[in-house]
UniProtKB/TrEMBL annotation:
Organism, as annotated: Thalassiosira oceanica (Marine diatom)
InterPro entries on file: Kinase-like_dom_sf, PI3/4_kinase, PI3/4_kinase_cat_dom, PI3/4_kinase_cat_sf, PI3/4_kinase_CS, PI4-kinase_beta/PIK1_cat
Domain PI3K/PI4K catalytic: 1036-1308
Protein name (database record): PI3K/PI4K catalytic domain-containing protein
Record has DNA damage as a keyword: no
Pfam family, one: PI3_PI4_kinase
GO molecular function: 1-phosphatidylinositol 4-kinase activity
GO biological process, one term: phosphatidylinositol-mediated signaling
Amino acid sequence: MIAAVLRNGTCTGSLYKSSPEQQRTHEFCVLLGITLWSYSDFWAYSKGDAPTSMINIVGASSWNPIQTILSGNKGRANSSTSSMFSDDASNQLTKSCDFLILTYSGMQLRCSAPSPNDKDKWLAALHEGLEGNISENRIESLLSLTRRQGTSFTSMPNEDDALATKSEMLVQSAITQSLASFENEGKIYPMRKPLPRVKSAPKWTPAVNKHRTGYHSPCSDRSSPASEFQCMSCGCFPPEAAMRIESTPLPQYGLEERADNCHDCFVAQGVLNHVNYLCMLYDAEARDRAAIRTAREEVRGTKERLIWENAGLHAEPPKEDPPGIKADCSDEDAETVATAPAEEPKCVLTGLADALVALVSGKKFASYRQRSAGLDGMCQSLEDNGTKYVVDFMEQLDECAQSAESSGFYDSRSVSSKEKVDGIEGMRKQFQVAGDTSAALRLLYEYALPQNNQSVHNDSTMLATILEFFVDLCDSGQIGALAFFWPQICHIHMQMLPPTDTKQLIRVEMIEDFLLTVATRYSVNLALSLSWGLTADLEESLGEAHCHPAARRRRFAVLRFVSELESVLFDFDGGWGGGGASGIMSPGRHQAALLRDAMASLQLRRRFSSTFLTRSVRMDKLKAEALEALGNGNDQSSASLTIARNASYFSSHMKLTRKLGDIAEKLRHLEVEKRKEVLTEELIKVNASGRTLGGDPLNRLCDSRFKRTVRIPVNETHVFRSKERTPVLLLMEIVADKTNENAEANVDDEAPSLDCERERCNSGVISSQSSQEVQCSSGLEISALGSLIRRSSKDFESVHQLSNYEKNGGKRVPPVSLLPADIQFQRDVLFAIMERGMSGSHNIIAKGAASAARRAAQAMESKRALVLINESAVSAARSDKGMTNSSATNSSSYRNLESNAQLDDDEVMEALRLLIIQSHVAKGSLSNGTDLGVKAEVGTDGGSVSVKAEVGTDGGSVDAGKVDSRLAGCGEISSSVLSALRLWKGGIVSNVELLELVQKDLQFIKHSAVFGSSDELKLIEDSAFWGRFSFGERWAEKKARLAASSPHGVEPGWDLCGCIVKSNDDLRQEAFVMQLIELCDETFRAAGLDLWVHPYCIVATGRSTGIIECVRNAMSFDSLKKRPGYGDGLAGHFKRMTEIAADPNRALVEAKQNFVRSLAAYSLMSYLFLFKDRHNGNLLLDTAGHVIHIDFGFVFGTAPGGSFSLEQSTPFKLTEEMLEVLDGIGSPLFSEFVTSFCCGFLALQAQADSFLTIVEITCRDSNFPCFEGKDCIEIVTKLRERLCPQLNKSQTVAYALDLIKFATTSYGTKQYDYFQYLSQGIAA
């Protein structure tokens, strides 16, 4: 038996129920208002099962409590509610635990509570609900919430009469509509007439239903025979599989017990019951606030009478106050006593206390205390403390009454509304000064989901302040900072659903208001992300019988919110969107009408709410609808255009992602040989569907103009040969909207390009064994730590350099100093390594890195001294010549940084270099079995470059290095290529046109000189040559080729996006891990570290579908090892990869440094987040030498093989082959790796709170495989232990050195690679 709990408008607990028609049953019951929900047990209630019965109550036993009901208070008077039963029956029940209730259908139920105290609580809630359900009482409560007590519109100075009249009209209209809504509540509708039953199912089943992703309603399964039972809601005979899955009461048809429903009607009924429950919570919350405001009037009257009596004046105060007497209800009691006669102030205060105690203990005040737990608590404190608490009682009561007023909707100029706004504004400024988004997220988590119902966290003002701070980020153009934590905010919202009492209702309504405002007013990309997250949760809760209990419990609340999101996005009236965008809601015609009416009733109740955000799209829409109904609507043409634009983008992109997911799912069920043909046919249909196919496939944040997908090149696709999942590689052409062509939208073309694996279709891509990776597009990004960062595809730039970049006419201004501000941070790490290695430690890593660390520290000091000398010289020259800071930045020391502004040109030159060398090979001018024979001599002056190439000459040819120094070493170029270069340098042709001209010249040479000869096949397959170009076609080449052949290639803002569409795979966990990786990247940048991380976009469009951005210019270690010519190991590959560079030695050094920086970063993250399944198919290497990890299906303690996993004891993967690239233990490169690893560890350790907050929020009630079935506290505790926050700097370095030592000597790494080779054929 569960004891009764009466809290915040609801009463829950165990009851025994019996009637003349049924036997005695034990059930867990929930009472709200006059409706009693019954469940078989508490577990059925907690996991979201349908109730066994829903009873509307019209009468109950008389209530004669012998002790206080709500807070254990004494002196509570009896309720005045009359009994619906005879005196004899009531007297028999008085001394027992039994009581009687009368249902709407006329049934009399005998209920038994566990104890007399529990019985009193049930009766208190029953009588409060019965009194509150009387129409006159409900209208009076609403009037008290909108009445401006103590003031009037005509008495306010400088009042605009038109605005005051409009406010009164809104109040009157809302009261009238509420009265009509109250009359329709509890109406019983006639049962639906049975429809003809189809005995046999059709012999065909549409293909769209066979292989379709997302949620599948059993009612749409035409292959199942019709049920023998009729659905009592819609009257149909649905398929057998859709009937009797679950049943639910249908109170609108008079069916209080469970009735047979089809699945669609069951879902619609669940949403209807949930909306009605919210309406009842709003009624309870309104009664609570009305009780406080009415009680305040009673207290004010008592106070005024006492003042006048002690003044020796009239018993009742006159219309005008006499001199010296101040009777304003908002004054504090101390001020009131001061205005009374001065001879007996203490007597006045004592008399006031006695009068108020008598008032709050009386029979009339008992009903107020019964309705409001807050008021009851204040009254109890007054009864206990008497005179000491009088002043505080008056102040608190005035404050609560002011906040209870429904002023936000009807009059934003009222005193209470302004006080709320001013209070939020003051607290919000404190958040803006702090500027810590992670800390704000932590506070949001604590106040939105308070633990153990802590009263300190029930302050809705603090929650509103946090949400207003997030909206401020959007207004200030920092929506990226909010977008980074958007998944956690959405997860917090889902954990709050469904609200079960009035306090939870207020919190849920506030955060939903925030989500709707941001999603519809600031970013439709976030609206898509929100919708996909909600849909994925619904696919699990409605589509699986054994889903997560939390997801099952909130399913109908999520469906209701999805419908509200649609109503705001598409500007539907009444708050009901129908649920069509999610593809889940399919209510019958009558149920749809009931849902619309219920949502309209809920919207009416929201008009009387006292809790709102200052920028609320929900409140604005309610006002617009109300004013339009009164004929006072404003011109909304501009807003309507924005809504239509966002709605078009939202709907088209939802359709595109759903269609692509369906295609991938369809291919999964086909034979491998037929997949390519079917994919081509399906994509042709997609391309023919319209001018705009959808939005940006990666859903990246955009500015005022959208990126829209206009075409999918059919011949550039590839289907992988996986059985369980069928990833589909697609290239998509996207074009920016023409409506805002002048808006800034820069897409970084030189992020590493799409992989080209010739064995897998010439579009080339990544590893074939696992999920593919993606790099986020460049452009302006908002740091999760509060900084603005522009991402570069080149090697890592110091965050201190980046933070000083400012937009100045489209140019980027370099920083004042090249040295990081926290140089001492890295020096301390180097000295710690030196100390550890020279102190006789047995750690071979410390010993090997000590000498190199010493040299690095010396070099750092020398560099620091040199830069200081140069800065002094520059400062002296500036003072002599009057140079400005901006002109000084053009010195030679900043040339490297300035070159970053020409990223597009560098990428084109790199692609052009490869094309020219290929042209020489085709002519036979270069030997493909030896070195290229190119010797480059760079002048010491850093200016001109002289090149000597051992190549044949053509008449009229010119050396490429003389045309552009970036082509040094390529040999001579033909006159046609020279002409193209001159046109390009003159600005006559674009980057795309330049590559197109050179490609055509190369094709002509191949066809005329080489192709058709006996050496053609040998030339193409020669591993010694093509090993240098093992990553295939560069992204710039591919983009230029497709732009030339595309009908949209000439449009402004045209771009190309490579992505992989997956089905039958939940990508939400991988998206979460990528969020952690991105936060690590931001942390490294903020610390000024040269650690390189490659975040990429993962979009989970559902529970089993998603889109992953392709990694450009990269290939898995597995594919690399299987290519011809790979015989010298990874170190040999680095040498061959850099041989074609103008300076091969320098290129090799840079490639190895890139390898070190990326290896250290990913090794550190592998340790912290427990990345497992690290075989060579899940590790990539790009053309710059960076190592990249992909496929994060096993993290946070999960691993292939479970507790028997070979990787379980390995902190991260560091193989002998990787050590060879680092030149072995003891080399400068290895020392750099160790130093970078230690510095990164310290940087992440400093941001431990941010990581712990994200993980704690995400793992709570999570259905991710890495968190499911695990203790959230244990996960967060172990992550905190791995971060070692208790260690100082030297201890942390020592711990990191031990981790590296363990990784280098781990036996499990080699064994796991060997196991994957034997089982999956992945190269070891």
